[in-house]
Amino acid sequence: MTSYMDEEANLIKSCLPPEASPPEDVDTLFLLYALLMRAKGADVTPADIHDAWSVWMQIEGKSHAALRPFGDLDRETQEEDLPYVEAIKRAVNIRKTSSTP
Length: 101
Hints:
It is a single chain. The protein has one domain (4-99). It is an all-alpha fold. It has helices at residues 4-14, 27-40, 46-60, 75-79, 82-99. 23% of the residues are buried. This is DUF7701 domain-containing protein. Pfam families: DUF7701. Residues 3-92 form the DUF7701 domain.
């Protein structure tokens, strides 16, 4: 069964730039991004993206050196979240445009 949140997650995926390389089996991660999109809209931040990714990593039972607060990450690691911020912002704009009478 596909829900409205699946549709939002798929929209965000479709808005990713070609150079973005999300990990495999990311359906749950993109559902978290869909939640961010609905909760924060265009105000979503790289720290929000990182927090969602951290929750997803915990749910998946995975370990990673970047599993620490966003502010503790080096600049290069922080910048890895930017394509996802931009994808969510693009998706927000698409939703605004498609719902405008």
